[in-house]
Design a protein that fits this description.
Helix content is about 75%, strand content about 0%. By secondary structure, the chain is an all-alpha fold. The chain is globular and about 65 Å long. It is found in: Cell membrane. One of its GO terms (molecular function) is antiporter activity.
């Protein structure tokens, strides 16, 4: 019997999952937010080891698991490269004054009362235009987070608003990779898929926006207007703030809209940030470089340092000092470590058919249309937790449920909508998932901190289940 034909029992498949959940729970209890500093990575590796031991007992060869691990890590390489480039871009955009300029002008035009509402809407618009939640959060999101903190708002709430808007736009954009992947897995076309998603996605974002609007009115009295002026003054004291700086993000957004791959677009954006730093911020260049024989040497050292390492721009305002710091590519290495470990665990579980055994058992329990949709949503979330990658959370359930949906007379777009409502949006809520780890690192906000406020992402899987059950009720009523 070949490895592909081997099939572990449900109990055997659940052993690594139970072990992982137990270790992750202990990590959260003992380390809190510090669990991402290394203990969760070790938990994933140890759980992969447990999965490998179980698989060896079943009869799988180590080479099969190793191939699965390599394939799993390879599938995440694009995300890892993007993550490194986002770190580089954050550094040069800080050095050049692009992010400080966004914060400076944003404080002038964004009313504290509607800030959370506006942050969600603006993030959604940019994400629809670019088709990328990652790019939106790494550029506009960073500036919006800084503005929100200056306005005296909790970083978790602000990050939740940004992520809600960015992931709504990602879902509804025809340029998004996941929006193209889901219908491909389900067997429908792109625009039919987007049309069907609107039935659940629009109510979800509407509820989220109402919540953000209410939170904004509740928090508006806490805003210190004088503090806003001090922040602007501190930024203007260190940087040459002007509208020309917005040319760089405009170019990056234009490239992504024109379907240029995120990797070259972010690299070009990072390099342009360095060029604009040399042109507009010579005083900052001198400070960051620590001096040099001439301006060329200072520029080279400062731009290079901003791309790979820590830079901190000190002002007389502590709040501004927190905003004007970044870790460059090196600041992303801890997140990359987490992603690699997660992919190791996912690779072992996938290559030994353990994930398939678990999902197959779930399908058997789905007797009605409503329970089938609920099972699909639950399976997508399960894959986000265990396989740690949103693409696997779409691809594997899509393959496994497609035939079942067809046999029960359901349209493929019902499946594709469910895959996106539960697979795409919940990935950012899992700290060790590629999306959760990335956005936490980019924004500098713990996943546990922003997850309770990412209302759109929380509501979406429940909305798709509710919509399925309402459809059943309506059909039964009309049949009578």
């Amino acid at each position: 019997m070949t490895d592909k034909q081997l099939k572990p029992s449900l109990i055997q498949a659940l052993i690594p999952i139970i072990f992982l959940i137990s270790l992750l729970s202990l990590n959260v209890y003992f380390f809190g937010d510090g669990a991402l500093d290394g203990s969760n990575q070790i938990a994933l590796i140890l759980s992969a080891g447990i999965a490998a031991i179980v698989a060896l007992r079943v009869g799988f060869k180590w080479t099969t698991m190793l191939d699965g691990i390599v394939s799993s890590i390879s599938s995440a390489m694009s995300s890892i490269l993007i993550l490194l480039l986002i770190g580089s871009l954050a550094g040069t955009w800080l050095l050049s004054g692009i992010v400080p300029a966004m914060i400076y002008y944003g404080l002038n035009i964004l009313n504290p009362t509607i800030f959370l509402f506006a942050a969600c809407v603006v993030s959604a618009i940019v994400s629809v235009a670019t088709g990328s939640s990652w790019s939106t959060i790494a550029t506009l999101g960073l500036a919006l987070l800084g503005i929100g903190q200056t306005l005296g708002m909790s970083e978790g709430v602000v990050a939740g608003a940004i992520i809600s808007g960015a992931y709504f736009g990602d879902k509804m954009s025809p340029l998004s990779d996941t929006t193209n992947l889901a219908p491909a897995m389900a067997g429908t076309d792109l625009f039919t898929h987007i049309k069907y998603m609107a039935y659940t996605t629009v109510p979800s974002i509407a509820i989220a926006l109402i919540i953000f609007l209410v939170l904004g009115f509740m928090n508006s009295s806490e805003t210190d207007i004088e503090q806003v002026g001090l922040v602007q003054a501190a930024i203007q004291d260190k940087f040459n703030i002007n509208l020309w700086l917005f040319l760089v993000p405009a170019i990056v957004i234009f490239m992504i809209v024109k379907k240029i791959s995120a990797i070259p677009a972010l690299l070009i954006g990072s390099l342009l940030g360095g060029v604009f730093a040399i042109i507009f911020q010579p005083q900052v260049i001198e400070i960051i470089s620590g001096g040099g024989a001439n301006f060329f040497e200072q520029s080279y050292k400062a731009v290079m340092l901003s791309m790979y390492g820590d830079i901190n721009i000190t002002t007389n305002n502590e709040m501004v000092n927190e905003l004007l710091s970044t870790g460059g590519m090196a600041g992303m290495l801890n997140t990359i470590w987490l992603i690699v470990c997660a992919m190791v665990f996912g690779g072992v579980m996938e290559s030994t058919n353990m994930l398939r055994v678990i999902t197959a058992s779930i399908i058997k329990l789905a007797n009605s249309t409503g329970s089938l949709v609920a099972s699909t949503a639950g399976t997508c979330v399960f894959f986000n937790v265990t396989a740690s990658d949103q693409y696997l959370a779409i691809v594997v359930p899509g393959r496994m449920f497609a035939e079942t949906y067809k046999d029960r007379g359901l349209k493929p777009e019902v499946l594709s909508r469910t895959l996106e409502d539960s697979g795409t949006v919940t990935s950012v809520l899992i700290p060790w998932n590629t999306c959760g780890a990335t956005q936490s690192s980019v924004l500098g906000v713990s996943t546990w901190t922003y997850a309770p406020y990412a209302f759109f992402n929380i509501i979406s899987p429940f909305m798709t289940i509710l919509f399925a059950y309402l459809n059943i009720k309506i059909r039964r009523f009309t049949d009578k």
